[in-house]
Every structure is written in C-alpha cells, then in structure tokens.
Amino acid sequence: MATSQRPVQLFRNMSAKIAAIPMVLTALVIFVGCTIWTIVHSFTKSKLLPSTKWVGFDQYERLFSQNRWLISIENIAIYGICSLIFSLVIGFLLAAMLDQKIRFEDTFRTIFLYPFALSFIVTGLVWQWVLNPEFGIQSIVRGLGWESFVFDPLYDADLVIYGVLIAGLWQGTGLIMCLMLAGLRGIDEDIWKAARVDGIPTWKTYLLIVIPMMRPVFITTLVIIAAGIVKVYDLVVAQTNGGPGIASEVPAKYVYDYMFQNQNLGQGFAASTVMLVTVLIILIPWAYLEFGGKKQHG
Amino acid sequence: MKLFKTLLGCTTAMAMSTAAFATDLEVTHWWTSGGEAAAVAEFAKAFNEGGDKWVDGAIAGSGGVARPIIISRIIGGDPMGATQLNHGRQAEELVEAGLMLDLTDVADAEGWKNLVNPVRLLDSCTLDGKVYCVPVNIHSPQWIWLSHAAYEKAGVAVPSNWDEFVASAPKLKAAGIVPLAMGQQPWQTQLAFDTLMVAVGGQDLFVKILNGKDADAAGSAEAGKVFEAYANARALSDGSNVNDWNQATNMVITAKAGGQIMGDWAQGEFQVAKQVAGKDYTCLPGLGVNEIIATGGDAFYFPKSDDAEVTAAQKRMASQMISKSVQVAFNLKKGSLPIRGDVDLTAANDCMKKGLKILAAGNILPDGVNAFSADTQGQIQDLMVEFWNDKSITPADAQKRYVAIIASAD
Questions:
Q1: What is the DSSP letter of B176?
Q2: Which of B119, B197, B287, B373 is the most buried (most CB within 10 A)?
Q3: B248 shares its domain with B386
Q4: Element (H, E) at B257
Q5: ipTM of the predicted structure?
C-alpha cells in the first residue's frame, strides 16, 4: 500500500523536466548527434557533399602527412601555451595593481577592458597595421632616429605566430583582468588585516593566501582562455590569412579551408575530429579530478 | 508564438512578393576591381533592358573567398538567381546533386554547339549530354606584363621573352626597381607556377601532368627546370609586398616593378590607367617562349528554382549573355576574349589581338581548373605557397612533394 502511494521517481518535479526537454533535445541532437555524424563521415571519402563511401583511416593518414597540418598544430601549441600563461599572469598583475585603491580606477578598468568589445576581425586588422613595417611600430621607431630598427613579426615565418599572440593578448587580457579583480574584491578584508598583523609581505600574501583562495575564479578564466585558444580562427584570417606562406596556419582554418574551399569534407571532418579528441584528452582527466574527486569527499 | 506567427507571415509575404516580380534575379559574382565592375555592368544593362531586374550580389575578395559563400548558399537552400563560377569541376557535384538548372533546351534552340569557339568551353559546361552553364569569356593566365618606363629607367631594352627578362633583372635591381611584381594571394603564386610550366616546360609536359596526372612527367628533368625557373621568380620578386593582383599590376603601371606574371584580366587595369599596349606596356603571351594560352574563363550557373517564372527569367538571362552584342560589350571592358568566333572585335587593342590570333591558330591548352579536383588543387596550392614564402625549400624538395601530390591526384 505504502509503496503504491509513493510517487514514481520519473514523474517527480514534472514541470521542470518538461521545461528542460527542449534543451536536452538540443544537446542530444545538435551537439551529440552532429558530433557523431561528423566523426562517422571523417572515415568516408566525402568530397563536396557527404557520402558514405568507407575509406577507413585514409583521411587521418593523409592529415598527418600534411606539412600544413603539422605546422597548424605547432602553432596552436605555441599560441595556446603562451596565451594561457601570459593571459593569467598579465591579467592577475593588472588586477592586483588596480586593487591597490588607486585613483581613476574606473578609467583604467574601462581602458583595459575596451579591446574586448572589439571582434577578432577588427583586432586582427588593427594589429596588422600596427605591426606593418612600413606604417607601424617599425616606421615610428625609425622615424625617431634608430634607422636600423627591425620589427616585422608578421613578415617573418618564425615570429609570425607571436605577432598573432600579441593581438590575441591585447584583446583578451582585459576580460581576464576584470574577472581577477572581481575575485580579489571577494577576498575578505580581515584576511589582509590578519596577514599584516602577522607581518607577512604583500607579495607573499598574494602568492600563498589570496591566489589559493581565488581558485574558482582561476578555473573560470582557464575555461574562457582555453575555449578561446581552440577556436582561434578569425584573428589569424584577419591578421595574416595564414601567411607568410603557411607559417601562421591554425587547425580551425585547416578545417574550414578543406571543407569549403578544397571541397573535401572528409579531410575537414578528420581534422575537426582530431581537434575534438585533443580537447577531450585534456578535458576528461581534468574534469575527473575536479568533479569526480569531490563526490568521494562529499 | 505570436512573434513566430508574425515572422511566418512576413516570410510568406516576402515569398509572395518575389513571386509577383518573378523576374528579379540576384546574381552573385566576384568581379569587383575597376575593369571588372565596368564589364559586369554590361550584363546588368542588357538584362534590365529586357524588362527584368538584375540584383547585383557582388562578393568582395577573390574567387577563393566568394566560392564557399556561393556554394554554401546553394547547398543551404538559399540559392541566388544566377552565379559566376569558373567552369570546370567546381560545380560538378552541385550539378550531379541536381541543384543546377538544365539549360539544354536554350542551348539547342540557339545552336550553342556551333557558335561557341573553342567548343571545349561548352563541353566543360556539359554533363551527360546536358548543358548546365553559359560560358561568357575566355581568360588565359599565361601572360607577362612589362613596363616600358621601368626598362627605360634601368637602361635596358624591353625583354621579348622570359630568359631575357631574367637576364635583365640585375640592371632593374640596380636601378631600384623590383624585377617581378607578385601579389601574395595564394592563387597568384599558383598562377605563376602554371604559367612557367607552359613557358619553360612546354605544352607536352603541361598536358601530361595537368590532364594526364602523370607522376613520372612531374618528376622528370624538364619539370625540374620549371621548378628552377620558379625558384628564380621567387628571388626576383623580393621586395614586392603587395597583396592583391591589381596592386601588383599597379606596380608595373607606375614603373615600380619591371613586370608581372598575370592573366589577361590585368589588361583592364592598364586600360583604366589609360596606358596603351605596345607603347606604355608590352604583353607577352606564354612569357614569349611558348605562345600557347589556356582557355579557361568564367561561366554563369543558374541554381534550380521551383518557380516557373524564375526559371523562365534564368533562361532569358542565359540566352542574353551569349548573344553577340552583349559578348562584345562585356569582353571589351573585361579585357577577355569572347567565346564566339563570329563577333566583330575591331575595337580590340594590341594585346587582345595577340590573344585572338593565338586562338585562331588553335594554340590552346586545357586549363588547369578543368583537370584537377578542388582538393588536389588545394594541395598543390598549399605546396606552392609554402615554397614561395620559405626560401629554405629547394626546388628539388618541392618537386619531390609535387610528384607525391600528382601521384595521388584525382
């Protein structure tokens, strides 16, 4: 008798579940469904239109024999690591400086955050001009008298990815700074007072007390920066279009070019699958440590 | 829901209004430089005079930018009325998927088979005996354009072939002139290679590799010479940092550069700058070595529509584009050659006449666009771009990789 009266688990909180159905469907069909579709078709000989002619791992073999793909991976690795480190370091330093109760804080905050309001396309074009040897920094410094000054990263195949990195950092660190600043403001004043009473130097307080306390903020920024790294495409297209030569190609551009310009969907799908797998390899162990571990404690 | 209904109402109303003026056709193309825009205006004029309305959908950037947009619109179910594409294999799969209008009835009624010259252009519009596009002009990439003023400044005679051009380069450099102007866009890098292949390697080699996909020919000593010449060109273009082809052409027009390897569409730019062929500039088909030109060109495709009136208007446009008067007006502005042999071109200039003469003599090549799939083309282009920008790659290395691509080409 008692068991029949108990509401079935499935129908508990019915309205919330119904409301969630559209999003669940979207997630299943769009994200999971399309991802599987893409992966399946990366094993086919799809050209301009998807086909189901099976070729096994041919597309992947070809992918990793392409110089352009290898350069793309190298570039994204350099861009990724540098952008991760510099975004966090510069973002935190700026935030810590703004946190010193300086004057005109609002003004500085606005200035630092402003580039984030620009799209990557605009950022890319702006920095293309700034780094152009005939109009930008090089010509200004030469105009000041240093005739032999050379600074043309966008025309040097070895340096070009750092030129892209500068533009990316200029655009992105403002946001990171704001998030960090919010995190710093969330630290209780009493902690600072206690640290001061104990005679701990400021830098040590930051490093050993404040930063560990800001862990959630760091994770948020990490996710934002990482997502920005994987999808970097428009910045490169606007700033260098992959040049000089193929020195600043990135994986996302490879995918686009193969799918839409070279009319080889199979190759593009294979490249995007590799991108997905790489992200998963990094993401899954991290998510396991981050969320799986907590459950055991809780 | 209300919003959705309103939107639905709007779109239905829009669909109905297009049905009422079924003769509005949106035409997409990537002709945006001065000479090109003037040429495409001739098409629009003729179409508007026929009582229809030409809605211009120019896409800025090169074909490489425009093609993906055009193709994704057709595949995505938002087709335009008509669109420019280079004929050949770019639209092959779209045609096979039944997305393009069959123009066979118009072609048969007007006897296109008899009037298109060379007939190969119509063949590349034809699939399984049905015609799917209208060829509108003949373009050949195998030209070099030389600035008389630049050679005067350097104190050497204007070269009459590629070898003389290479020999004269040091004097140009000494006079502070860049010997070879080159835009940095990938297709230009590719074009220079194909042109050198015809000029230095000769017609047989070109046909063997580009049509026969013969990997042995690609690895032969003759092909090696082409790569050597290409490496030469790479060295000669040092100091030319422009991007677009018309900027490079402008270097030749203003005598900042000695010459440019570029297709005959460069002619439009010389015309806009009011320069005279033979007096201010010289053009050498086949780089003056092998006077052979390819007959690629542009064609218009008409995506299939369910609307009978749109279909009728598309067919009207197709028949206009190939008509005598429009062909003459368009090609004179474009600097290209007309696709029919029976038109009067007394107004043509020196360079166009050179082209017409070669065409009449039948010294024509199949165009690269016709032979390789977009995929293979992309691979070759990547290689050329890499080679062109990385001076540490030797011609022999590049050739080895080229052979590998040709061996797996489709």
A1: T
A2: B197
A3: yes
A4: strand B257-261
A5: 0.71
